[in-house]
Specification:
The radius of gyration is 26 Å and the shape is flat. By secondary structure, the chain is an alpha+beta fold. Helix content is 20%, strand content 33%. The strands form five sheets. Strands 1-2-3-6-5-4 form a six-stranded antiparallel β-barrel. The chain has a six-stranded antiparallel β-barrel with strand order 8-9-10-13-12-11. Strands 15, 16, 17, 18, 19 and 20 form a six-stranded antiparallel β-sheet that branches. The protein folds into four domains: 105 residues, Trypsin-like serine proteases (Thrombin, subunit H); 109 residues, Thrombin, subunit H; 94 residues, Roll (Pdz3 Domain); 88 residues, Pdz3 Domain. It is built from twelve helices and 27 strands. A hairpin with a 2-residue loop joins strand 26 and strand 27. The longest helix is centred in the first third of the chain and has 23 residues. It catalyses: Acts on substrates that are at least partially unfolded. The cleavage site P1 residue is normally between a pair of hydrophobic residues, such as Val-|-Val.
Amino acid sequence: MVARFSQFLLAFCFLVSVAANARGFPELTDLIEQNSPAVVKINTVERSRVARNAMPPQYQQEIPDIFRHLLEPRQPQQRPVASMGSGFIISKDGYIVTNNHVVDGADEVRVTLTDRREYEAKVVGTDPRSDLALLKVDASDLPTVRWGDSETIKVGEWVVAIGSPFGLDYSASAGIVSAMGRSIPNESRENYVPFIQTDVAINPGNSGGPLFNLNGEVVGINSQIYTRSGGSIGLSFAIPASLAQDVVAQLKDKGRVDRGWLGVGIQDVDRKLAKAMGLGKPSGALVGQLEAGSPADSAGIKVGDIITRFDGEKINMSGDLPHVVGQTRPGSEVPVLLMREGNERKIKVRVGALPGDDDGQQASSAPASSDVGGRLGLVVDDIPDALKQRLGVETGVLVKQVVPGKAGANAGLRGGDIIAQLGFDQVESLADYEKIVKKLPKGELLPIRFFRGGQPTFRTIEIEES
């Protein structure tokens, strides 16, 4: 009897274990088989933009003739740089979503499908703030993926990534959602993406690939990993599908992304500040700085206020506020709940447009007309004062439009860049720019210095006029 009971107990435990494993480890073969055809491998080529430093002509006159030939600029060696990433098809007529950093600065973009079809892709628009880009290939009846609802994802939920890590085509990896709403500032210290954190194995080459839920719907776009070795250590971050769909729709419609803007500098509220401000627990975004004339200033928000809700969304930490404000349409009037001197107040704020978005952050997709953009193929303007203050620049011109195939586009410039130097001349204003462009020689590589997101960059530019 005891032996039979022991056998029964062992069999029962085995069945329980099998059932638990069945619940804990889902069957993924159908999901991967059905969605892999819509995942693409992206290969890009960027030609070298590095030029040899040259001495300004006024100083060359002081050099003896016997040594002057040593200082003459030489044609730099062109060294194309190839890189790769992933993407996914969202429409049968060839629209593809990927990361901005996958195609940033690329002179050539090619996508490959699982059946080995290969297409040259056009960059419809990019959004560095969300690290998203929209591509288009000339094809029809392509396989597509379905968008899912990233707002309903829960921590612990199973998710699957498909992409090309290290160039290994169409690899799949699975894991769980580790956290939601992670705030990770970009290189410009901006924070407009509430990332989905997962423990899915994401490696270089997975960037831009889809993150699926168990229904086979895209709930995120793999964008970043945290690593000390260059490979996965179980900390990966994806852009939520809800944000991506809005960005992609704007890029497709107008080639840029408009974001809401308040004009405040914020910080977290710690335990002592919460007690001093009359809050039951640390929460909200404390206004530590207020830009004069900004939407927040006009609405009556003051330094020292703690914003606890914005347009009905609860603000638990300061990083939550840019996420919510950025996704609010400029011009919208929304309710804001805040604490001031221990008292709760409710005010209305008319949200402004984030400087830099409406001031020319256009995709490089202007019509290639011979009279658009002049010799460089760039439509430029003076920098708005609000953008100068935000980026900390005093001089230069703002790129508002880039004509494909002309000198500016070939140099890798894009809308929103600020040109500070052309050749060896500093660009102080729009009038300066126009004078300098007129005298630029054709057929010569010249240095160009510009700011992108507040960061200075040197490249070369060449006018190829007939």
